[in-house]
Amino acid sequence: MTSNTISSRKTDHPIDSLFTRRWSPRSFMEKTVPDELLMRLFEAARWAPSAYNHQPWRFIVMRTQEERERIFPCISEFNLAWCKKAPVLVMIISEKNRDGEPNHSHAFDTGAAWSHFALAAVMEGLITHPMTGFDFEQARKILQIPNSYEIQALVAVGYQGSADALPEPLRAREQPNSRRPVEDSIYSGSFGKKFS
Ligand SMILES: Cc1cc2nc3c(=O)[nH]c(=O)nc-3n(C[C@H](O)[C@H](O)[C@H](O)COP(=O)(O)O)c2cc1C
Q1: Is there a domain that residue 180 lies in?
Q2: Is 24 in the pocket of ligand 1 (CB under 6 A)?
Q3: CATH no. for residue 145?
Q4: Is residue 136 assigned to a domain?
Q5: Among 61, 122, 147, 162, which is most exposed with the fewest C-beta within 10 angstroms?
Q6: Structural domain harbouring 30
């Protein structure tokens, strides 16, 4: 699906289609992403808010075949089946401490940066697919990630390919999913109190 709207995703309230056009396809074209385009995604991530403006996020970018293949052994069989074609893999990590003290929002802040990244990708005609289906400790060793950083997710970035290019069990799943109703995620005033 490459159209500008996603008809299967109906929103309960009117929002910019940018939010529903971001989804996580698994079919990637074997096409290089120009660095200039890639840098725009990191630029968008850069402007995410963070506690004390500490910017705890870091991104380890794997663009060459050699770089990507180094981490293939730690990726689950299910994920490797589709992500091996992605031209860019990005390991997102977050710095756990700030000034020697635990930074309680490092994951929250890094999640915000990832969200900027993913939405910027949609704006550039790219797709992203985040994964946690890989061996974190093996990845830490391969990428030489210090223990002071937490591994958050591995993200495949590239151009969307045809669903037909996927092996069968994945082909049928290659479509945007939906969400529970918005009211089911929000409470009014205190936990558990229905918002209406
Ligand atoms: C932190 C995180 C980990 C994920 N891990 C995987 C994964 O290992 N394999 C996979 O195929 N999808 C993975 N996903 C994709 C989710 O299944 C997907 O984001 C979710 O179903 C919502 O669909 P959408 O992104 O297409 O809107 C992950 C997503 C997130 C945010």
Answers
A1: no
A2: yes
A3: 3.40.109.10
A4: yes
A5: 147
A6: 25-163
190 within some domain: no
Please answer whether residues 35 and 72 qualify as being in contact, where contact means their C-beta atoms are separated by less than 8 angstroms. no
* Cβ–ligand 1 contact at 4 (below 6 Å): no
Rounded distance between C-alpha atoms, residue 86 and residue 83, angstroms:
5
What's the CA dihedral at 49, 15, 189, 192 to 10 degrees?
-100
Residue 119 contacts residue 88 (beta carbons within 8 Å): no
**Using CA positions, which residue lies closest to atom 21 of ligand 1?**
177
- Report the C-alpha gap between 153 and 85 in whole angstroms: 18
177-196 per-position pLDDT tens digit: 999 999 999 999 999 999 98
For every residue of 131-191, DSSP letters joined together read E--B-HHHHHHHHT--TTEEEEEEEEEE-B--GGGS-HHHHTT-S------GGGG-BSSST
Query: Six-digit token pair at 159?
Result: 């151009």
Q: Helix, strand, or coil here: 90?
A: strand
For ligand 1, whether the C-beta of 23 sits within 6 Å is yes
Instruction: Look at residue 19 and tell me if it is in a domain.
Output: no
Question: Nearest residue CA, atom 31 of ligand 1?
Answer: 130
pLDDT digits (tens, 9 = 90+) for 109-137: 999 999 999 999 999 999 999 999 999 99
How many domains does the chain fold into? 1
State whether residue 136 is helix, strand or coil.
helix
